[in-house]
Design a protein that fits this description.
349 residues, alpha/beta, 4-stranded parallel sheet, 10 helices, globular, binds threonylcarbamoyladenylate, binds magnesium ion
């Protein structure tokens, strides 16, 4: 796979490939995506094939900031005319958070092929806050669908090198936009015509920020039919990952020994000191060969940025089992971090 620099020449090359129906790895502020022109059904089929992604899991369309009013960004992608007055107000309030790690699920415009949305009458739309993504979308002159650039069910890539590791031989090029600043995927919010708003996936914008914007509570996500990509097992390393039932200091020795029985283990803490965690496991009789804290200082933005890269590194290291301590709480970014760790630990298909 060719790793292209984010220069005018690199972007022109990628844009040309996309216009000819190709697929390209693209940086965003959340994770790297695998992009194709959103109006091109054959190109969209190539995205599903490159990822081994089942066709029932819909893609997100990425748009650039418009020259006119913010909702012009939706033109040809989503059709807000079916939304009632409350939904309309909430759409404006949520779109004001763009560009950023927020995907809005809205009634679909017929110009988007059914393949992109897995036959659903709705489409996910997002305006990424990344200069390279924005320049690429503008250069192509069309919205780009892009799922995360990993094999289906695997860990999302947050560097161009991780895209190469996931998709080398299947995708011809990736634009290198540096490490992702947010590090986990966008929050996905479905806006219903009556104004109801549902959080289908916690992500890089917190529930608290979203609820302040809409002036009311978000209801819980839909079922699997409404949010088809939210299968329990996802973000999975190759090695087994076991999530501790609580903070490391509160888990009894026999439970730690049972979870670490097929060791040696690598310990992943969200916050706190890695060495103190490794010592706690050693005292319980668990063999530890690696320990990492995503943010020893407790900064959950730093923890989110580091999460997927840390999972990749521990997966490639000498441990046979990964033991993860849960997020310290589920407020702000803690919600999305907790969600990703639960899915990484869920039983595999
Ligand atoms: O941050 C992100 O959102 C990244 C970057 C590349 O933009 N993209 C991403 O795409 O995470 P993907 O395909 O890995 O996850 C999209 C999620 C899936 O769970 C999918 O089921 C859901 O959004 N989704 C997309 N369109 C939907 C729709 N019309 N209705 C319900 N869920 C939808
Ligand atoms: Mg994904």
């Amino acid at each position: 796979m060719q790793v292209l620099p984010p220069t005018d020449a690199g972007i022109a090359l990628a844009a040309d490939h996309l216009r000819r129906g190709g697929v390209v790895g693209m940086p965003t502020e959340t994770v790297y995506g695998l992009a194709a022109v959103a109006f091109d059904a054959a190109a969209i089929a190539r995205v599903f094939a490159a990822k081994d992604r089942p066709l029932f899991d819909p893609l997100i369309a990425h748009v650039a900031p418009p020259d006119g009013p913010p909702l012009d960004a939706l033109r040809g992608v989503a059709d807000p005319s079916a939304l009632g007055p409350l939904a309309r107000r909430r759409l404006e309030a949520l779109a004001a958070l763009w560009p950023g790690p927020l995907t809005l699920v809205l009634p679909k415009d017929p110009a988007i092929p059914d393949l992109a949305t897995a036959g659903l009458p709705t489409v996910g739309v997002r305006m990424p806050a990344h200069p390279v993504a924005e320049r690429l979308i503008r250069a192509v002159g069309a919205p780009l669908v892009a799922p995360s650039a990993n094999r289906f069910g695997a860990i999302s890539p947050t560097t161009a090198a991780a895209v190469v590791a996931e998709l080398d031989g299947r995708v011809p090029m990736v634009l290198d936009g540096g490490p992702c600043a947010v590090g986990l995927e966008s929050a996905v919010v479905a806006l219903d015509p009556d104004g109801g708003a549902r959080l289908l996936r916690p992500g890089g914008l917190s529930r608290e920020v979203l609820e302040r914007a809409i002036g009311g509570p978000l209801s819980a996500g839909g079922d699997l039919r409404e949010a088809p990509g939210q299968s329990a097992s996802h973000y999975a390393p190759r090695k087994p990952l076991r999530l501790l039932p609580g903070p490391l200091d509160e888990v009894p020795d026999p439970v730690l020994r049972a979870l670490g029985a097929d060791g040696p283990v690598a310990l992943l803490r969200v916050v706190g000191e890695p060495a103190a965690g490794a010592a706690r496991l050693a005292r319980a009789g668990v063999e530890v060969v690696a320990a990492e804290a995503l943010a020893a200082d407790g900064d959950l933005a730093r923890a989110a940025r580091r999460l997927f890269a840390a999972l990749r590194e521990l997966d490639a290291g000498p441990a046979r089992v990964l033991l993860a301590e849960p997020a310290p709480h589920e407020h702000g970014l803690g919600h999305a971090i907790a969600d990703r760790l639960r899915r990484a630990a869920a039983p595999r298909r």
